[in-house]
Design a protein that fits this description.
The complex is a heterotrimer of chains A (about 450), B (about 300) and C (about 250). With about 450 residues, chain A is mainly alpha-helical. Chain A has 15 helices and eight strands. Chain B has one domain. The chains are: A mainly alpha (about 450), B mainly alpha (about 300), C alpha/beta (about 250). The interface between A and B is large, with 46 and 52 residues.
């Protein structure tokens, strides 16, 4: 079935493009509920539940940030633990000067961001594996620099002051809430960021910098921004780690294990997706709980899992699930779904956007109205078939283009994200991967809000 | 000559010889990247593996480690070829970043397996009488034979590689594949077995370097990442894709470390890293490579 | 859409016979059911607009692209699963589009590399330099510094070093002066008289029809015209080239 090129009425292109989905709405509600439950944990379960949750939340935050760097921007950095350390020491310095450590978390994030700026100038000159090793060098430099500075305790480390004002129970709860806040901000922040133009640009720059640059993406700027933000986030996470242990020393806070964990979580969970790192954090947490007794074997398993994940199922657990079942809880790109031809015909017969009782806007007669798009203003206007003019702009409407029918009429579920994340919303050809159908979709400049291409 | 000057000359000489070791560990990394565009993050750990294997063999046979080299090096070659065929080669099909991730995971695995097998006690290799022999140049300057041998080994290996690459049929095929793997396949070069041999050579040089590191100093399971960093810095300073540049880079590192160490030992390693960062800031392609070549090789962003 | 009948050049088993070939780039189908054959010692011209699939067809025959279905028979041997190096040692050699020389190797090294999987010893260096005297004087220079015509000569020489019985040439006249192209085609005629079979992809219709016996015109991945050169007029070829007439093969 080859649709005519050029202007295509919706009726001839039974396909729908959207940025959100019903599943995503349900999931957003669920996520909000989960966060509320997590907030209530100190009241309901108290101390013993907080400790493991703090570890888990730290993992979630670290994984999301590393995913922003490697999954979305193509920068595989194995030196993020450098900024964990910077954040931890920044927190100490800030707390030693009398600032409340909890507010110091923000300062630590900012400090890490500031430190990462000159580093990014150097390190972003390299790419690929060379970039990866350069980040390792940076981490080593930071660690040595700290070890040689007696003002921050040298090799012995320092303890974080300023929390003594709180009683032990309240202190633990505050640290827990701080960790929760950092984790939520990291995940939500990365998600919202990636949904914007930045995410599109970052993914383009990550897949093919030359092609992206020729399409107008400012590759270096995007990479620098991603690096700065990941560093800032890592700084905040490092501060939280410091608060948790209340003692900061170089070998534990600049430990490369953190980078190993980040790599594992994102690879196992699903690189390049938002849900993947969270899943990976859960997996790592479960692994850690069950295998920590085995010492070094635990890390062997983690390393082996990372290798196997890259070679065998390179899209991670979440990638597997979303490929197989079409799940997408936090959609980032543009989803194309094919509509059943028969259903679309029925839908048209049934009157297009049957409003089931909404009054017709022109003559206010309730009941079934033929929904039409006014050609000039593209606002969906319900009007009686008797009325001729669109009440919105006064233009005369075209015959009913078909509004995409409800989700339960779609064939299957909305498909997985388009692979490159670059939507083909301008006039052009695309193919539905599942059925080999070729078609043309054109989006006019005044399309409904959920279809508008992002403004640059 | 005054004592002051001789101290500094001594430092420079020691640094140059130290640079030979760095060049030896770095040339395998340079070869892997130049031909296959893979940065093997497990390279340092493979060198440490070579040291451990040397330890096992030389203790089992009760001889200095030099005697077991003819056994160790071919074994390392085989290990490298197998790794390439099983892990690194397939990873290339999963995108540009996959080899980086795979080699990092491999590095973690190796380090922790060694930790399980051998505990984290520092070990040393039995270097026989060579390990302690030294000779005097002048009154104040003493040079250890071991350092000289390490440097000589680096020069021999680098020259050997250079000859292999420029004069033999294998070398021609390797250089052709490094230029354009697709066309190399087209003219009938069997690219995958070729990559395996290159990886084997790279791991062989790593094992040799590991043996020297283990004889000169001590090693433990986690020494690999430090070694990797030094090797990498030597490659970047010398220039991506240039074998002799790697020697120059290694020597630059060694001299910096030695000279700064003369002033304050604690700052020696930091000075080396800062030198690397300075080269990265001023001339990221390295001393002996043009910016264009480095960008084509895929190292520059 | 069957292939052209073997022309006057002898009967018997055609050297190359392609039947029902389909090839894809990912999800995109580049070749639809291509069939063609070339007799031993013959010359086939493969023409078509950009994107018609000529390079894809050559690369599929050479083994670099995978054929999804269909068969490629070379001297009766089915080649479909043979890797490129095996096809080279059987006697198929491709001169790729755009020359694709190894820039850091010298001219002589490029040619020697071409002999990596040679089918036989019948093309030693001296014989190659005899065919291309212009590059003999530049044998020690790096391939990247040569002129376009010399690079093309080196590319053909590299393919010859594998002693092919079937030489596939992809757009050798691209970017070259007519005088240079003329001399290249003279060399090709020499090779042909020496027994090498040729398949030439060419944008210049006149030259292609002058140098070859049979002609296959591709349009969007399908064979639009397949006939001996003597039996089609230029207008018919042009019509098939642009798809103005539905496939004209009788």
């Amino acid at each position: 079935m080859r649709a005519a090129t050029g202007q295509v009425a919706w009726a001839e292109a039974p396909v729908a493009v959207s940025r959100w989905s019903r599943t995503a709405s349900w999931f957003a509600v669920l996520a909000a509920v989960v966060v509320l439950v997590l907030v209530a944990v100190p009241y309901v379960w108290g101390g013993p539940a907080e400790q493991p949750l703090i570890t888990l939340l730290t993992f979630v935050a670290m994984a999301s940030l590393w995913n922003l760097l490697a999954g979305f921007s193509g920068l595989t950095s194995f030196g993020q633990h450098a900024y964990l350390g910077v954040g931890a020491y920044a927190l100490y310095l800030v707390a030693a000067h009398g600032v409340n450590p909890l507010a110091g978390i923000v300062c630590a994030g900012v400090a890490a961001c500031v430190v990462s700026l000159p580093v990014s100038v150097l390190v972003l000159r390299l790419s690929g594996g060379y970039f990866a090793v350069a980040t390792l060098v940076i981490a080593a430099v930071f660690q040595i620099a700290v070890t040689l500075s007696p003002s921050v305790g040298g090799t012995t480390g320092v303890s974080v002051p300023g929390l003594a004002v709180y009683g032990p129970v309240l202190r633990e709860a505050l640290i827990y809430w701080a960790t929760l806040a950092v984790a939520v901000v990291c995940v939500a922040g990365v998600y919202l960021l990636v949904r914007r133009v930045f995410g599109l640009d970052a993914r383009a720059a990550g897949s093919d910098p030359v092609a992206a640059a020729s399409a107008g993406v400012r590759v270096r700027r995007i990479r620098r921004l991603a690096y700065l933000m990941a560093a800032g986030g890592a700084g905040a996470v490092g501060a939280v780690i410091a608060l948790q242990t209340l003692y900061v020393e170089p070998t534990s806070v600049f430990n490369i294990q953190y980078s190993v964990y980040m790599l594992f979580m994102v690879l196992i969970g699903g690189i390049g997706t938002i849900e993947g790192p969270v899943l990976g954090a859960l997996v790592l947490f479960a692994l850690q709980e069950s295998l920590s007794a085995y010492g070094a074997w635990y890390l062997v398993v983690v390393g082996a899992a990372a290798v196997i994940a890259t070679l065998v199922f390179s899209r991670g657990l979440w990638g597997l699930a979303s490929d197989r079942f079409g799940w997408s809880l936090l959609p980032v790109g543009y989803q194309v779904s094919k509509v059943r031809p028969l259903a679309s015909k029925l839908w048209k017969l049934a009157g297009g956007a049957a409003c089931r009782g909404s009054p017709c806007c022109a003559c206010r007669v309730p009941g079934w109205s033929r929904g039409s798009w006014c050609a000039r203003c593209s606002r969906g206007e319900f009007r009686c078939s008797a009325a001729i003019r669109c009440t919105g702009c006064g233009g005369s409407p075209r015959p009913a283009p078909m509004r995409p029918p409800p989700w339960w009429l779609w064939r299957g579920s909305p498909g997985p994200e388009s692979m490159s994340g670059l939507p083909r919303l301008s006039a052009g050809r695309f193919s539905s991967r599942w059925s080999g159908w070729h078609g043309t979709v054109r989006v006019s400049p005044r399309s409904p809000w959920w279809l508008a291409p992002p403004r640059r | 000559m005054t004592g002051f000057v001789t101290t500094w000359i001594n430092a420079v000489i020691q640094g140059m010889l130290l640079g030979g070791q760095y060049a030896l560990i770095a040339c395998g990394l340079s070869l892997t990247f130049g031909v296959m565009r893979i940065v093997n993050l497990a390279h340092g750990d493979l060198a440490v593996c070579g040291a451990y294997l040397g330890l096992v063999l030389s203790t089992a046979l009760g001889v200095p480690v030099w005697v077991v080299l003819p056994l160790l090096l071919p074994g390392a070659f085989v290990v490298g070829a197998v790794l390439q065929m099983l892990l690194l080669g397939p990873s290339l099909r999963h995108g540009v970043l996959a080899p980086v991730l795979v080699t990092f995971g491999l590095s973690v695995m190796i380090e922790n397996l060694l930790q399980v097998a051998a505990t984290s006690d520092p070990r040393g290799l039995n270097g026989g009488s060579l390990a302690v022999a030294s000779f005097r140049i002048t009154g104040k300057i003493t040079v250890s034979w071991l350092f000289v041998c390490a440097f000589a080994a680096a020069v021999v290996v680098l020259s050997g590689l250079q000859i292999l690459l420029s004069r033999t049929s294998w070398g021609r095929k390797v250089r052709a594949t490094a230029d354009d793997p697709d066309t190399a396949r087209l003219v009938g070069i069997r690219v995958l077995p070729l990559f395996a041999t290159v990886a084997g050579v790279a791991v062989g040089t790593a094992a040799l370097a590991g043996v020297f590191i283990g004889t000169i100093g001590t090693f433990d399971p986690f020494a690999g990442s430090g070694t990797l960093i030094f090797a990498f810095e030597a490659v970047v300073i010398g220039g991506i894709g240039s074998l002799w540049g790697t020697l120059a880079g290694g020597m630059a590192l060694g001299i910096t470390q030695s000279v700064v160490g003369q002033v304050n030992q604690a700052y020696a390693v930091l000075a080396v890293h800062l030198l690397f960062l300075a080269v990265l800031a001023i001339r990221p392609a390295g001393l002996f490579t043009s910016h264009q070549e480095a960008r084509e090789a895929g190292a520059l962003g | 859409m069957t292939g052209a009948n073997p022309a006057s050049e002898g009967s018997g088993v055609p050297l190359l016979e392609v039947t029902g070939l389909n090839a894809f780039y990912g999800d995109f189908q580049a070749l639809f059911d291509i069939s063609a054959s070339v007799p031993r010692g013959g010359a086939l011209a493969l023409v078509g607009a950009n994107g018609a699939g000529k390079t894809t067809l050559l690369r599929t025959i050479a083994g670099v692209n995978r054929a999804a279905s269909g068969s490629i028979r070379f001297s009766g041997t089915d080649l479909r699963t043979a890797p490129p190096h095996r096809r080279v040692s059987l006697g198929i050699s491709l001169v790729p589009e755009g020359r694709k020389l190894f820039g850091s190797l010298t001219v002589e090294e490029n040619i020697l590399v071409g002999a990596a999987a040679a089918a036989s010893d019948s093309w030693p260096l001296e014989r190659i330099y005899g065919v291309f005297p212009m590059i003999a004087s530049r044998r020690r220079q790096r391939a990247a510094v040569l002129s376009g015509g010399e690079q093309q000569a080196v590319a053909i020489a590299r393919a010859l070093a594998a002693a092919p019985s079937l030489l596939l040439l992809d757009e050798i006249s691209l970017g070259l002066a007519p005088v240079v192209v003329e001399s290249l085609y003279e060399t090709l005629a020499e090779l042909r008289s020496g027994g090498t079979t040729l398949v030439i992809v060419e944008q210049d219709l006149q030259r292609a029809m002058a140098a070859c016996d049979d002609l296959v015109c591709l349009l969007e991945g399908r064979v639009a015209l397949a006939a001996p050169v003597s039996s089609v007029s230029r207008e018919q070829v042009v019509a098939a080239y642009f798809g103005q007439v539905p496939s004209g093969a009788p």
